[in-house]
């Protein structure tokens, strides 16, 4: 039994209502292009420019009591809130003042919103008889297992597990405002972990929750998760992302990624998104083609169906590799419409963990994650347009 179109539409309506309640601003191109979203009345300011920010607020007529300042900076940025704030204009004012003082870096920015990246037309379940028997955890002692961190939703309390050691963190069940279980995005991390466990059963997967039950998070939320990344992580899976209002890299997030990838030896594998965009950068995946010193450690993953890139998969020169993303089978959750706890789902969300698993397998024979990535790309059996393709 597949999720009905009516049920999917209700889920999308609830998600949009949630975005409205959060006070998100929709900003994007005309002509039906995918929009960018940012939090209304909220600004991220580089911590060393706090005085510039306060001066800018005062010049605009805001009293000190009108401004709510976060007590702690996250990855070098502090969050400010004030009702009626023209976020983009004030960010440019503060950044211009900083440039006049000799700092060419953006001093302030909108707090963008990112979303999980399943293709929402997927979701047909499979029957118990069709479930593939999964391999056991073999080949490594626990001390030698590769640590993968999935930054995503929480894990469903009674989620089926493809292996005993595939999940290190769980959360309680959640309901939406009407009291109905929101299975679509609470199960998102379950599905991702299942893909990794099927293709790299000796991975040690840890789940860090950043997305809410509607698959939404702010840039500041994601920065916090990255800056508090568990130690020892070799690969980070980010099956989420979004566009920015000017299609430029989101600078606060760049600072957080730089902290993660500028120390140690690790990779970030990010989904390219499912908006059908051709060429437009989708962040954080598109950091792979920037001039950041750590850009080669960001792996941008598009989705294919074995014959071609899927029409809904975002792509562009910034994509690193394509991987299977259509009708992927993995762990979902136990639910009346999914009695086996397994399902079939599509999206670049699920192409990304396929690449994570390939990197983990290569780490059995090569010394570093970056070397493993190069081996994965060198061994890619096909090409999809200009991109090497796995699977």
Protein architecture, described:
The protein is 26% helix and 21% strand. The longest helix has 17 residues, at 5-21. Strands 1, 2, 3, 4, 5, 8 and 10 form a 7-stranded antiparallel sheet that branches. It is built from 9 helices and 17 strands. It has 2 domains: 40-112, Alpha-Beta Plaits, CATH 3.30.70; 116-389, Rossmann fold (3-Layer(aba) Sandwich), CATH 3.40.50.200. The protein is of the alpha/beta class. The chain is globular, with a radius of gyration of 21 Å.
Whole-number total of structural domains: 2
Average pLDDT metric: 82
How would a textbook summarize the main sheet?
7 strands, antiparallel
At the third CATH level, what is the topology name of the largest domain? Rossmann fold
By oligomeric state, this entry counts as: single chain
Strand content: 15-25%
Unreliable stretches covering 5 or more consecutive residues: 121-141, 159-184
Shape: globular
Cα-atom Rg, whole angstroms?
21 Å
* Span between termini: 27 Å
User: What is the string of SSEs from the N terminus onward?
Assistant: HEEHEEHEEHHEEHEEHEEEEEHHEE
Helix content: 25-40%
**Record field, number of beta strands:** 17
Q: Count the DSSP helices.
A: 9
Q: Say which CATH homologous superfamily of the largest domain is assigned.
A: Peptidase S8/S53 domain
Indicate the CATH architecture of the largest domain: 3-Layer(aba) Sandwich
Would you state the CATH class of the largest domain? Alpha Beta
Structural class, please?
A: alpha/beta
